Amino acid sequence: MANDNLKVLNALDVAKTQWYHFTAIVIAGMGFFTDAYDLFCISLVTKLLGRIYYHDAGDKNPGTLPPNVSAAVNGVAFCGTLAGQLFFGWLGDKMGRKRVYGMTLMLMVICSIASGLSFSNEPKAVMATLCFFRFWLGFGIGGDYPLSATIMSEYANKKTRGAFIAAVFAMQGFGILTGGMVACIVSAAFKSKYPAPAYEDDPLRSTVPQADYVWRIILMFGSIPALMTYYWRMKMPETARYTALVAKNAKQAAADMSKVLQVELEVEQEKVVEKQQNNFGLFSKMFLKRHGLHLLGTTSTWFLLDIAFYSQNLFQKDIFSAIGWIPPAKTMNAIQEVFKISRAQTLIALCSTVPGYWFTVFFIDRIGRFVIQLMGFFFMTVFMFALAIPYHHWTQKDNRIGFVVMYALTFFFANFGPNATTFVVPAEIFPARLRSTCHGISAASGKAGAIIGAFGFLYAAQSQDKTKTDKGYPPGIGVKNSLIVLGVVNCLGMLFTFLVPESKGKSLEEMSRENEDADEDVIDMESVRNNENRTVPV
């Protein structure tokens, strides 16, 4: 027989939307705001780093980061994020969400500041220290994924839980937008204060010495929103679901939630004791039976989504150049190039990225996670093939606006689709004692896909003609073939979505089956065997 749910958890499930819900969204969301700012702001300054530290006297084009250095600078934070998602996801289930939540934030603050204080002025020393601190910055960011999602899911009511978790994730869009805006403001200020000629007019003077401060300020700014949030994170009580179901302290759970909900809640310690028998672990047969396919679904869809999502950045430079947002590098000075790149990213975020996130927030509890994810993968597949098959058509000057529209729609349906739902669902369908761990595993799988998407396709998308590849890169399969591969990846994502259950309108305990005894599955199996052994009289 299934046990009745604890009253403190029922109270959370049926609670009306209150001020504490919005407080939790802001506190968790500001972490994600910082995550996105720190992860994406590096792309705004890599061109500047190339000009400052890899200038080649006599070259007709500005200096650029060598392929291996570029991959390290851009990718090391992803590697740290992957490790952090696994480690802090596990730690969040062992030590509690609240205790670990503060650790991740302080790590982000310290490493964000240290990233801008990279030592020496020698290229190797600067890149090595930058990569070191960005790895540990990513490690802290990785912890924020499972903890923010889990905390928000365990605080929310079941009617609007999807919107609340998606709203936390949607702060990522504002982080990307703010990154572009900060870079615009800083570069515009330095450009005004320290005017310089274009590279083609004077290669040496086109990069003023003060340009070295620009990238440092942009990277260090990410510490400010995280630091502002730290106090409020420490004031949050531990979630009732962790306290009652994992720490087995019903009295503390009722006391904490009585303050939050401002109602008196009954202590039910005896029910907590009953639930201790249902304690199977991550590597148990019972977990494999109940949640094995669910974990396969959340990991595979997040992995496939991030391959496609992060590879889209490869085509930004072609699109920006095609519509005249970014002129050739040699026609600009160093700081001017930062301004042009950041302005372009700000416009993309404003018109495509941010709206997609908030469409998900509005619709997720109306049409469900499954429909949004399936629809998102479907349209991403359609637009990828629509870009790939007639690729030569889109490269013609008269058709470039159509290419930009298709590209923007692909981004829109990624965010109003699997980019949001792959974050939401793992926080809803696993047991409380394994929720943070399973979310961390799913997110780490996604980040592995991001590394493949961002760097595997950086090489794959190179022209098949070795004379047309970017400097330092070997020939690849070309942009057209890369887009076809990405279309297939999105199609696979659509298929694996069928492994993920719909959690709209259901309580966390209903989805994770925590109200059921493990013995029930054994009884069901015995019943099946008994039925099979019965003989039918002739």
UniProtKB/TrEMBL annotation:
Residues 509-538 are annotated as: Disordered. GO terms for molecular function: phosphate transmembrane transporter activity; symporter activity. It is found in: Membrane. GO terms for biological process: phosphate ion transport. Residues 24-505 form the Major facilitator superfamily (MFS) profile domain. It catalyses: phosphate(in) + H(+)(in) = phosphate(out) + H(+)(out). GO terms for cellular component: membrane. Keywords: Membrane, Phosphate transport, Symport, Transmembrane, Transmembrane helix, Transport. It comes from the Eukaryota. The chain crosses the membrane at residues 20-49, 69-88, 100-119, 163-190, 213-232, 346-364, 370-389, 401-420, 440-461, 482-501. Coiled coil: none annotated. It is a multi-pass membrane protein. PANTHER family: SOLUTE CARRIER FAMILY 22 MEMBER. Belongs to the major facilitator superfamily. Phosphate:H(+) symporter (TC 2.A.1.9) family. This is Major facilitator superfamily (MFS) profile domain-containing protein. It comes from Mikania micrantha (bitter vine). The lineage of its organism: Eukaryota, Viridiplantae, Streptophyta, Embryophyta, Tracheophyta.
